[in-house]
Structures are given as C-alpha cells and as structure tokens.
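We close this part of the discussion by returning to an individual protein. Part of our work consisted of pairing the sequence of a single chain with a tokenised description of its backbone. What the numbers capture is local backbone geometry rather than side-chain detail. The amino acid sequence and the backbone structure tokens for this protein are reproduced below.
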Amino acid sequence: MEDYFCMYVNSTGSRSARGIELSLATGASEFLSSVVNYTYAIVKGRNSSPTENYSYGWAGYQIPDDDTYYDWDQRHTVNISLDFRVPRGEGPRLADYSFLEGFGLNLIWQYGSGCPYDNPEHETHPFFRNQNRYPAETIADLKINKQIWINDLTFNLYCNILNIFNEKISVQSWMHPGMMLI
C-alpha cells in the first residue's frame, strides 16, 4: 500500500500588505479610561487561501496572473473601548456606605469597512475577483459589573449585553480577522 501526502507550496508570485495602525489610550482618572484604535490596511495577492489556486485549476480556470484584493482586505477598522470603574471605598455615600464602590461599566464599539467579494459573473469572468465590497458594519457591546467584598472574598456579578443596538451583522464580518478585534 502506498502512502500519499499533501504539501502546500507557495506558488504565487506577489503579495503585499500595507497599512498603518494608530492607538490612543488614556487613563485620565482612576474612574475612567479609554482606548481608541484605528487601522488602515490594503492587502493584495493572487489568492486568499492556500487552496484557491487548486480550486481554480480543478474548475478549469486559468490561475490568475494579476493581484486582487484578499477576501479579508478591510480598509478601515475602528475600535473604541470606554471603561468606567468605581474603586473600593470610593463613590457617593449613603449612610456611610459607598453604594457604587465596585461598580463597573465597559462599552466597546467597533466599526469595519466592508470586505471584498466576487461579482455575480465570477463563473464567466474569474479574473474579476473581489471587485465588490460588502457594506460597512458597526457593533457595540456593553458589560456592567459590580464587585462585592465580604472579608477576604471578592464576588463579581456581571451582565454582558452583546450587540446592544441589535445591528444586522453579516457572516463576512465574523470570518475576517480585521473585524471584531476586541
């Protein structure tokens, strides 16, 4: 019996990734902190996955000679995180009790410009890959928590609310690494 194995070989000529990432983090007070992150990127090459050339050859297409945008070419991404915390022993008092101590609120907002996809004529024009773009998408998540201290024990009660504005999110956002970084 013969043994068979497969090996991936980099057969594409060129690939390019260009971009810039800017981040700003603040800790303006002991109660409030924030992080803002912006990324601009362009990624191009001859195939978006290790099996794409194989699939093209199997389907009878000529393997493209020109670079196209990768499936995950997301030009703009923005991530904003705002965090509000009331430290132990701090906050307003009611009858000598700091009722907001240990309270926390975290808001994460994310924006991603649309990733490319094939045009409907892909079957007859395989070289016009990824010429269209999905629409931009945003999502916001909220986490509310309250820490409670009893002697040496710390309890953390929390509630995570995902997609608080009930935005319609397409599958493409979850499939590409540029979106949903946080």
